[in-house]
Amino acid sequence: MTLAPIRPELRGKSPYGAPQLDVPVRLNTNESPYPPGPELVADITASVTKAVLDLNRYPDRDAVELRTALAAYLSESTGVTRTFEQVWAANGSNEVLQQLMQAYAGPGRTVLGFEPTYSMHRTIAESTGSRYISGPRRPDFTLDPDAAVAVIREEQPDVVFLCTPNNPTGLSLDPETVLAVHDAFGGLLVLDEAYIEFSHEESLLSLLENRPRLVVSRTMSKAFGFAGARVGYLTADSRVIDALQLVRLPYHLSTVTQAIAGAALRHRKGLLQHVEDTKKERDRLIAEMRFLELTVVESDANFVLFQVPDAPGVWRRLLDAGVLIRDVGVAGHLRVTTGTPAENDQFLRALRELGGSSTARNDRAGLPSLEA
Ligand SMILES: Cc1ncc(COP(=O)(O)O)c(C=O)c1O
């Protein structure tokens, strides 16, 4: 029996996906380590109970209530007023990005990113038939605005992805670099701010004014601890959102999803308190790892990228110690997501013990072998 021929460009590819393993400490997918608290759980339950009474009907196709609540959150957290007409929501920011590719990229069009960055930018671009190319970064993973502008001028892409803070490095972009990139071409600039709530830097939402070619994408998966609910969104000129209406599937956001996202937004104050806890823990992780003489990339996100000589080997040995982190495919580096204080302690303990050292804080015997 022969299989139907798959699209040639998909042949030989592997699906995206971090391992989902049942281990005591899971620090590999940049989720929040904090499950919803009792008040939010009660609101979600009540919201679902109400929503199910209408499940014989299709959801609000335009998700106006949810988009209005997201616009209110953006306006209040950044001081930049947004209305629901300037906000669009879908099942995770991955779906938002896919809709952007469907509307602005696709066959015969070029998408440019700067790797290492969120690998789904390439995957979604290619799966929609677009050509994806990567521009350069400096060896320390920062973006050189002149080099970025040069490659954009040469390639004239239809869509450019920037990510701030960038996954997997955690590094932020300054507004000048974003503007230089924006002004270097005539297509759509997608600024992925999935981790912005964890940043020392401000959101770049203020750049949206009078720039209808700029889109800022966001997610509830990280700061809102809502990865399982699948809610992502973007804000842009309302005409970009009109364009997305042409490619979105009708009723793409279920009634239940819209209801529970609304509940989470009502509880944002409490949820965002966890962001503060995570930021402190992230900074502690960086300090402790540097104390262990590891080279660590500065991070504005809820994860940390650090250097090791043998990334697959160290990843395996940490897993054997019950700690799952991420080998993101950047040679000589691993990425660890910030967990609860107890989880971070377990990770740090496992790191120290890798080289056979004791757990004493000032005993670095284990680390020279890591750095070897
Ligand atoms: C930079 C970046 N953008 C977007 C996403 C997608 O998030 P979601 O689809 O859960 O909203 C992720 C997830 O890890 C990410 O790291």
Describe the protein's architecture and organization.
The protein folds into 2 domains: 8-35 and 269-371, Alpha-Beta Complex (Aspartate Aminotransferase, domain 1), CATH 3.90.1150; 38-268, Aspartate Aminotransferase, domain 2 (3-Layer(aba) Sandwich), CATH 3.40.640.10. It starts with 24 loop residues before the first strand and ends with a helix. The chain is globular. Helix content is 39%, strand content 13%. The protein has 12 helices and 11 strands. The site of pyridoxal-5'-phosphate has 13 residues, from helix 3. Pyridoxal-5'-phosphate binds at residues 30, 92-94, 118, 163, 167, 192, 194, 219, 221, 227, 232.
Short description:
The chain is of the alpha/beta class and 372 residues long.
Topology:
Blueprint (H helix, E strand, L loop, with lengths): L24 E2 L11 H15 L11 H15 L8 E4 L1 H13 L5 E4 L5 H9 L3 E4 L10 H11 L3 E5 L11 H9 L4 E5 L21 E6 L12 E5 L1 H8 L9 H12 L1 H24 L11 E5 L3 H10 L2 E2 L8 E5 L3 H14 L11 H6 L1
Helix pairs in contact: 1-8, 2-8, 3-4, 5-6
**Could you tell me how far the N terminus lies from the C terminus, measured between alpha carbons in angstroms?**
52 Å
Specify the CATH homologous superfamily of the largest domain: Type I PLP-dependent aspartate aminotransferase-like (Major domain)
What are the distinct ligands in this entry?
A: pyridoxal-5'-phosphate
**Fraction of residues in helices?**
25-40%
What characteristic shape results from the CA principal axes? globular
- Strands of the biggest beta sheet: in what spatial order? 2-8-7-6-5-3-4
How many individual domains? 2
- Please give the largest β-sheet: 7 strands, mixed
Low-confidence stretches: 356-372
Give me the CATH fold name of the largest domain. Aspartate Aminotransferase, domain 2
Highest-level CATH class of the largest domain? Alpha Beta
